[in-house]
Amino acid sequence: MEVKTSLLDNMIGVGDMVLLEPLSEDSFLENLRNRFDHNEIYTYIGSVVISMNPYRSLPIYTPEKVEDYRNRNFYELSPHIYALADEAYRSLRDQDKDQCILITGESGAGKTEASKLVMSYVAAVCGKGQEVNKVKEQLLQSNPVLEAFGNAKTVRNDNSSRFGKYMDIEFDFKGDPLGGVISNYLLEKSRVVKQPRGERNFHVFYQLLSGASDDTLRKLKLDRDFSKYNYLSLDSAVVNGLDDAANFRTVRNAMQIVGFMEDEVQSVLELVAAVLKLGNIEFKPESRCNGTDESRVKDKNDLKEMCELLGIEQSVLERAFSYRTVEAKLEKVSTTLNVAQAYYARDALAKNLYSRLFSWLVTRINESIKAQAKTRHKVMGVLDIYGFEIFEDNSFEQFIINYCNEKLQQIFIELTLREEQEEYVREGIEWTNIEYFNNAVICDLIENNQNGILAMLDEECLRPGTVTDETFLDKLNTICAEHQHFESRLSKNSKFLTDHSLPHNCFRIQHYAGKVLYRAEGFVDKNNDLLYRDLSQAMYKANHSLIKQLFPEGNPGKVNLKRPPTAGFQFKASVGTLMRNLQTKNPNYIRCIKPNDKKASHIFTESLVRHQVRYLGLMENVRVRRAGYAFRQAYEPCLERYKMLCKKTWPHWRGPAREGVEVLMSDLQVPTEEFSYGRSKIFIRNPRTLFFLEERRRQCLQDLATLIQKIYRGWKCRSHFLLLKKSQIVVAAWYRRYAQQKKYQKIKSATTVVQSYTRGWQARKLLRELKYQKRCEEAATTIAAYWHGTQVRREYRKFFRANAGKKIYEFTIQRIMQKYFLGLKRDLPSMSPIDKSWPSRPYLFLDGVHTELRRIFHLWRCKKYRSTFTEEKKAVYEEKLEASEIFKDKKALYPSSVSQPFKGDYLEIRKNPKYQKLNSAVEEKVLLADVVNKINRANGKGTARIFLLTKNSVVLADQKTGQVKASVPLPDLTSVSVSTQSDGFFALKLKEGSASAVKGDFLLSSEHLIEIITKLHHIGSTAADREQLNVDISDEFLVQFKQDKVCVKFIQGVAKNGNSVSCKRKNNRLLEVSVPATA
Ligand SMILES: Nc1ncnc2c1ncn2[C@@H]1O[C@H](COP(=O)(O)OP(=O)(O)O)[C@@H](O)[C@H]1O
Ligand SMILES: [Mg+2]
After folding, report:
1. How many CA atoms does the CB half-sphere of 689 hold within 13 Å?
2. pLDDT, tens digit, for every residue of 758-775?
3. At what angle do helices 314-322 and 339-369 cross, to 10 degrees?
4. Residues 539/547, Cβ–Cβ less than 8 Å
5. How many angstroms from the chain centroid is the CA of residue 176?
6. What pLDDT score does 2 carry?
7. One of 31, 53, 104, 160 is an active-site residue; which one?
8. Residues flanking ligand 1, CB < 6 Å
9. 160 annotated active-site
């Protein structure tokens, strides 16, 4: 996109007419055409925007464009309506100046579009936010609603506003929209009942019929067919490029956004339907007997449906269409209506119904968009009033519309041309006067209170007697005939001028924008705006909340006999208010120009444009601008605004403001021809000078902002620091307090603990002592108690039964023992020591005693038995005992010897004569005599020998002869060897070197081996002079045979032929004795 920094960049023609060279009407038009051909529809005259209607949409209203023009200087970019809107909005926001946007131009020149563009621009650039957006949306959406009800297609404009609209948008100090107020001016209500050829009724009728759902239409008792309704002209029911159905939906939606309730919308549509129905009611004459004609409703169906829609009683309305009641001073006179009057009444009702509905809509919208806050508002007014209109047939409405336009032109002239020139004069600025047409005279012609047209119309209306449009015209002719801007047949005629273009019933006014021929017909009626009281009362009776509100004068309780103010009077008053209102605001002009009459794009009809340029006074406007100064400002605000640009004036200028400005300007070295000093204002010739100042100011402001920021930041940091410091002290104090508190609490609790321990310890100590004392006392008591107890028990024991058990027990035991001992005595076994019997034990507990007694008894019995022994028997037993000591458990032969008594002398040696010889050889007493076998050392065979034992020796003698074979003194005998077995072999070992040992030891065998050895041993033990005889018991022993030692070995053998023991010589050294195993 091209970037423009100045109006002058890439300019097509001249953007600002002030710069046009040479300046003439032709060059002016040429410039406009040139720009129009290049799609530049906006051109400036200073700060005034000329807008040419392009009749097509141009891509110059995009959001990007909005951004381009936002916050830019007016002359910075190429001319645009946005630049004007931005300028207005910014001076409203930043300089607190209320603004008004005055949009003027002919019908169809683009005023309404321009007003919408301004509003949408302001909505786009002002603040954002949920609430703000809602307000904006409501403000914007009020347009479609009002356009549907107040706009219609005319020959000049397919969407012509048929009402004047002035909207105040209210802003807060930040420039955010708060709400708005809409004022409406005189709706062209005659359109409701009749439309000129090629035009339509208000859009809403067509929108409703084509856009509403079948269901809605049924509810409203309507038919989709336009042709069914008398009030709808048929020739242009459908307009190219206008989608009524879609617009209906848009309007419904807009109503919802604006805040209409569903039932309100419904009521509104019901009223619209009622108007259509009303148009279909027709009347027929009915002759009465007095010869007058009375009207009657022809077909009552439409009447009925309409009454149903509005909740009106049919008969009441029917009567209101037939009669008219006139009240005058407590008198009521009822006259019948003829058919024409009935039609008039019907149309009046329809017009009133519709126009009041429209006013109600405006009020209702105002209610929604009303600013909530009560604070002071800044206001931007947007005026979009119907444009100047010249139709073929111009009536009261056009008169009023054009009057309004005159007034607007007046205010434009006032403010831009006259005011400006007057100001130069007033301020003493050198100035050459510029001629311009001032339309004040025309305004005066219309609105003058004495002889103005409106005043006269009112006079006619109020005058008693017959009043017609003709009488009104006559009056005009007499009073205004002399006025230079007034023409009529009569006035002309009086001057003897004939003008056939001027019909009899018309008058012509030369407006600033051209001559307009008005037909006088209808002026009086329209000005009167009469609605028969019967009708308004009928409406008031309606059972429909909205209708009732719309016809408050129908309330029979509030009958007001005073005439209501006339339409003209009302309009004049409201225009007066509007003008006063506009004068308080800073004006911004948009002057709309229509390029052609065909609503076509790209066509530039020069004559048409020239005409508009002329009557709009644009040329004069340029001339004044060029001759004068683009900008002026009183010294005080000027100094205030720019004083920062010079050191001398900044920050305060002490002297008069004018001097301050002079110092400022010379300091800035602005060329002197660029400005002039007036009496109270400075005048700056060129906008560029202003921009220069503004630019410098902007830079300076930035520096100032930096400075302020710097100081503010410094201040902020310092105060933040101080705050931190202060807080730190507070925090520290609190913390110290807290810490001390904690410490104190800790010490306190520690002390308490120590204290409690000490106290505990002391208490425990005390307790211990007390307990000990108590225990001592208790112990003494206990001991005493026991002692006493013992004493008492001892004393009283005998009295206690508790001891009986023990006594019985002892007694029983005694008895048992007694019995036991007596029984034992009775059953004692025999006195024989070998008797093993012993009575059985009666009780288990006597077990030990019983065994002990048995042992004692046995010992005693043995002792008794022993005491009966003789000396011999005693010796025998002693020998037996000795034998036992030697052999018991050592020699197998021993047990068999126990029961055999030791006879000693088996041979009865002293008595038997056989042994006489032997007897003599042995002198000593023979202790033992027996026959033994002497084993032959050579072959082991035995030889019987008599064996004698005396106290001193052992004698071996031949059995047969008794001859002593060997006598061995006992001291020569060292030991005896025997086997362990049951044989009778024994070896007598002799002392080496002794006399008897020459032949060697003796190996003998005897049946009485045990007795022999025992006696040998006994003698050895009793003899004091000898050593004890050794008895060797072993199965292998050595025997000394002469020189040799032979080993005698006992083995276990088998018994052979009764010869139990056999002895064999095995070799020189071994003699083997085989002993049969004892069975
Ligand atoms: N800026 C524009 N851009 C495009 N079309 C425009 C513009 N201004 C006006 N028009 C066209 O001209 C028609 C008439 O404009 P409008 O504003 O209704 O006229 P006025 O209010 O002056 O009678 C609009 O319906 C639109 O089609
Ligand atoms: Mg308009």
Report:
1. 19
2. 999 999 999 999 999 999
3. 120
4. yes
5. 33
6. 39
7. 160
8. 53-58, 105, 107-113, 157-161, 387, 592
9. yes
In terms of DSSP H, where are the helices of 630-686? 635-642, 657-668
- For a pocket test of ligand 1, which of 101, 111, 159, 162 has the largest count of ligand atoms closer than 8 A to its C-beta? 159
> Which tokens belong to 159?
């969407």
Could you report the per-residue pLDDT of 186-204, keeping only the tens digit for each? 888 889 999 988 899 999 9
One of 389, 423, 427, 460 is an active-site residue; which one? 389
3-state secondary structure of 994: coil
Q: How confident is the model at residue 1079 (pLDDT cuts 50, 70, 90)?
A: very low
- Helices 111-125 and 130-150 cross at an angle (nearest 10°) of 170
Report the alpha-carbon distance of residue 270 to residue 204 in Å, rounded: 12
Q: Which uninterrupted H or E stretch holds 586?
A: strand 586-593
Spell out a b/e string for 685-722, using b for 16 or more CB atoms within 10 Å of the CB, else e.
bbbebbbebeeebeebeeeeeeeeeeeeeeeeeeeeee
Residue 271 has pLDDT above 70, yes or no: yes
Alpha-carbon distance 478 to 456, whole Å?
A: 11
CB atoms within 10 A of CB 384: 25
What one-character DSSP code corresponds to residue 298? S
User: DSSP 3-state assignment of 335?
Assistant: strand
Active-site residue among 157, 649, 689, 933? 157
Distance CA 848, CA 294 (A): 167
- Please work out, in degrees rounded to the nearest 5, the angle formed at the alpha carbon of residue 575 by the alpha carbons of 573 and 577: 70
**Which residues, including other chains, have CB under 8 Å from residue 900's CB and lie 6 or more apart?**
1008, 1011
Residue 495's pLDDT is 57
**Is the pLDDT assigned to residue 1 strictly greater than 60?**
no
**In contact, 389 and 402? CB cutoff 8 Å:** yes
Residues 956-985: tens digit of each pLDDT: 888 888 788 888 888 888 888 888 888 888
Is residue 692 scored above 70 in pLDDT?
yes
The rounded distance, in Å, linking the Cα atoms of 132 and 342 is 51
pLDDT averaged over the chain? 86
Whole-angstrom distance, CA of residue 1060 vs CA of residue 984: 11
Residue in the block written with tokens 């009809």: 605
- What is the CA 54 to chain-centroid distance, rounded? 55
Whole-Å CA distances, 109 to 117, 160, 746: 14, 10, 93
Residue 6: is its pLDDT beyond 70?
no
The SS3 of residue 152 is strand
Angle between helices 453-462 and 440-447 (to 10 degrees): 0
CA of residue 292 relative to chain centroid, distance = 85
In 3D space, the residue among 502, 500, 504 whose CA is nearest the CA of residue 516 turns out to be 502
d(CA 512, CA 633): 31
| DSSP of 382-406 | EEE-PPB---SSB-HHHHHHHHHHH
Nearest CA to ligand 1 atom 8: 110
Integer angstrom CA distances of residue 459 from 119, 298, 444, 448: 41, 38, 17, 13
One-letter amino acid at 252 equals R
Phi, psi of 202 (to 5 degrees): -60, 145
Comparing CA positions, the residue from 1042, 1050, 1055, 1053 lying closest to residue 1005 is: 1050
**Residue 57 identity:** S
CA distances (Å), origin 663, targets 48, 642, 670, 818: 32, 11, 11, 164
Nearest to 296 by CA among 307, 309, 310, 282: 282
Coil/strand/helix, residue 723:
helix
Total residues found in the chain within this entry: 1079
One-letter-per-residue 3-state SS of 505-520: CEEEEEECCEEEEEEC
Q: Give the predicted TM-score (pTM) of the model.
A: 0.62
Is 501 a known active-site residue? Answer: no
